[in-house]
Amino acid sequence: VQLVESGGGLVQAGGSLRLSCAASGFTFSKYTMAWFRQAPGKEREFVAGTLYSGGITNYADSVKGRFTISRDNAKNTVYLQMNSLKPEDTAVYYCSTQNYWGQGTQVTVSL
């Protein structure tokens, strides 16, 4: 299993970013995919998840209404659209499935 995140960067508060996670090594369409994040000095926390079909999603309360998780099973890719970003969203964002993790992508939100 390989998970490769991209799309992180530096953005001002109120801005948007779209993260991507390209997956390989397993039958992507059959598995739940999720995004987690870890801020400096804090534990890794769940952000959003999507079932294999993409029809059911769930979110951490802190990102509901601002972030949207989606997946393209034809491209073996899961996305995280992040809008109205806040400084407290600053973290390394990780893609995960079946207890596998990507290397993470840094998101930094400045005031």
Notable traits:
mainly beta; 7-stranded mixed beta sheet; 111 residues; 4-stranded antiparallel beta sheet; globular
Describe the structure.
This protein is an all-beta fold and 111 residues long. It is 0% helix and 53% strand. It is built from no helices and 11 strands. The protein has strands at residues 2-6, 9-12, 17-24, 33-38, 45-50, 57-59, 67-72, 77-82, 91-97, 100-101, 105-110. The strands form 2 sheets. Strands 2, 4, 5, 6, 9, 10 and 11 form a 7-stranded mixed β-sheet that branches. A 4-stranded antiparallel β-sheet has the order 1-3-8-7, with no helix packed on it. Strand 4 and strand 5 form a beta hairpin. The N and C termini lie far apart (37 Å).
N→C terminal distance: 37 Å
Radius of gyration: 13 Å
What is the H/E string?
Answer: EEEEEEEEEEE
Give the proportion of residues in helices.
under 10%
- What is the strand content? over 45%
Q: What kind of sheet is the major sheet?
A: 7 strands, mixed
Number of helices, counting only DSSP H or I runs of 4 residues or more: 0
- Low-confidence regions: none
Summarize the structure.
With 111 residues, the chain is mainly β.
Helix and strand layout, with pairings?
Blueprint: E1 2-6, E2 9-12, E3 17-24, E4 33-38, E5 45-50, E6 57-59, E7 67-72, E8 77-82, E9 91-97, E10 100-101, E11 105-110
Parallel strand pairs: 2-11
Antiparallel strand pairs: 1-3, 3-8, 4-5, 4-9, 5-6, 7-8, 9-10, 9-11
